Amino acid sequence: MLAALVAVGPTAQPMQPEAEPVPLVLNVLHERRELIERLTGETLHVKSGASCPAVGAETFKDLGQQPGGGLHLAKLKNHSTYYVHVHKSGGTAICRLAEVNGEVFDEFASGEHFKHNCNCKGDGPDAEVNGWALGFDRSCEERAQLKSSFQMVERWVDSHTCGASHGMARAIMIRDPLDRIISAAPFEAEVHAHVKTRKLVKMIMRSIQPGAMYALEEPEALKGTHMIGYGTAAWDNFLTRTLGGPDVFRLPARSLNATHLEQAKQKLSNFEIVMMLDEFDTDSAQLAHVLGWQALVVEEPLPAPRAEHTTNPFSEEQLKELAEVNQLDMELVCFARALARERTARATTRGLTGAGYELELKTPVGAGRPGPGV
After folding, report:
1. pTM for the whole thing?
2. In this predicted model, what pLDDT tens digit does every residue of 90-149 receive, in sequence order?
3. Long-range contacts of 101-109 (CB under 8 A, 24+ apart)
């Protein structure tokens, strides 16, 4: 069944699945959106789907996992972080915070003012720059030899995500699937594809038709950011593909199934840090809890979103089709949100707070912060 679509906002209410769809209201500024944009550099556009079902401890038990991944690494010495940067999900802000918090990076990751976004060579989205081939898969033994304490992976995850047994914390920030697509399309058109947004939208809708494999095979897949940024994978259950690894990532459009979803849930349940972009103000407490980060707010303003502020480039019919195609991701995001709230609760019960509270303390009274007693 097509998921209902609702605007992001303090008064937005989940629609009943049986209700007739209404036009999307996008780019309506409100206090929470402005807060998330300040903290992450991303603009929220829309929430998709009816309210997520409740996920209890039994769900995690069914997966054979204990909620929270079972280990906090802040107390471990010389630990590293395996951070999955889901493309267009606030990874640039996380990279900046890693720098502020004293993480160590190799020459490739930190060169030219972090232009590689904390990616070790081979971990970034650009095939030509990073030198990866189709099916590239880095072992934990190879990753242990890298000289970066914070290793940001902006492609599919490796077959083994190198957890506590390899001295690594696993972390990810996740974004609503349709919100990510609405933000990514104009960004990719302007920054990478170098085409008009309307032309890229037409390409997107062709690339999600059954069996389509745009930029999933050579030679197109190895041209710049084509495979990660705006090929078929970018618009067809991108999160499930990302967590599925190198083989799942390259499957044709509309060929992912419930088995791939369950495998993604299994992998995600082992992550020590699971944050939601639209709740980063509170979920970021996990960064303090697990990694021991002291700063959660980038002092210098993040680059202002450019193309994201443009009008939604998709028609209502196109969004309906994208919602249908991305049903697995929508279910996976519901699962991720439950994980995120469990891990954030664990952090807050230990007295740790997120970036929203830190920003409030840094904001002078009268400049958007209420005075005493207000």
Report:
1. 0.86
2. 999 999 999 999 999 988 887 654 467 899 999 999 999 999 999 999 999 999 999 899
3. 101/291, 101/293, 101/294, 101/295, 103/148, 103/149, 103/150, 104/147, 104/148, 104/149, 104/150, 105/147, 105/148, 105/149, 105/150, 106/146, 106/147, 106/148, 109/148, 109/151, 109/152
